[in-house]
Amino acid sequence: MKYLEIESLQKVTAFLSDRKVGARVLDGRVEAFSCKAAGDDKKLMKRLEQTMLEELATSPKPDVTAASPLGSLTDASTRTLLIRLISTLNASFPDYDFSTAKADDFVKEPDTRRVVFNINKALSDVTTESAGFTEQLWGAINEVIKLPECSVYSYIPDLDEDPLSTGTLWSFNYFFVNNTEKKIVFFTCLARSKNAARAATKRSEDDLSDDEGDMGVFDDDGTAAQQDDDADDDAFFDWDDDVDM
C-alpha cells in the first residue's frame, strides 16, 4: 500500500493527535493509501494469498472455513480485499504485524451514514470545542475518497488479540474503500484517560535515547501540557469543502 500525502488529511491528523478533551486524551489519524502494491507489499500479498489457499485446500469443512463477514474466501475478490485491509493496518502501524489477522477480525458496515454518525458521536467533545470540525472533516475525506462510492469496513478483533486497544476507553478503526479509484482512507482514533495517556507517553519516552528529548505531551506534575498551536485551531477550519452527511 502506498501512502498518499494529502494535505487536508494531514491537517485533520495534526488536529486529532494527542488532543486533550476534558479528562481524556484523543489520538486520531486519517490516512489515504493507494491499493497499488510494490516491493515488500507484493511479497506480503503473495504470502497471504498462498496461506489462505492452503487453509481452504486442507480444511475438512471448506465451506465453513471460506465463510467470513467480508464474503466467501473462495472468491479472489474477497481475498484481495482482506489482504488490502491487512496491508493498510501494517502500513499505518509499522510497529505491529497484522499478517495473522483473519477475515473474522473485520466487519463490513451496512450503512456509511451510520458510520459517519458513530464517528461524529465519538468525537462529539471535539466538535463542541471546535465549531465546524465535522463539516471540514468529512469534506476533506469526501474530496479524497468520494464517500457515496465507498464500501466501509471496520477492524474489530478479539480484545485479547488487539494490540491497538490496550489501555483505551474506546477506539475505532474504519476503512473507506473505493474500488473504482483503488484507494483506501483509513480513519483510526482512540481515547485514553490522562493517566493512561501519560503512562503510554512515558513508555515511549523510555524507548528513546536521552538526546531525543521530551515528547512534551504532559507536564511533570501529570497535568496536560498546553500545546503551542491551540490558538491556531480556528485557522485549521478554513476550507470550503463540505459534504452533507
Provide the fold topology.
Layout: E1 2-4, H1 7-16, E2 19-21, E3 24-34, H2 40-58, H3 62-66, H4 76-92, E4 106-109, H5 112-122, H6 124-129, H7 133-145, E5 151-155, E6 170-178, E7 183-193, H8 194-206, H9 233-236
Antiparallel strand pairs: 1-3, 2-3, 3-7, 4-5, 5-6, 6-7
Helix pairs in contact: 2-4
- Residues in helix, %: 40-55%
**How far apart are the first and last residues' alpha carbons, in Å?**
28 Å
Global shape: globular
User: Structural class, judged by helices and strands?
Assistant: alpha+beta
Q: Which sequence of SSEs, written as H and E, runs from N to C?
A: EHEEHHHEHHHEEEHH
Q: What is the overall number of helices?
A: 9
The parts where pLDDT drops under 50 for at least 5 residues are 202-245
Strand content: 15-25%
Please give the radius of gyration in angstroms: 19 Å
In total, how many beta strands? 7
Instruction: State mean pLDDT (0 to 100 scale).
Output: 79
Main beta sheet, described?
7 strands, antiparallel
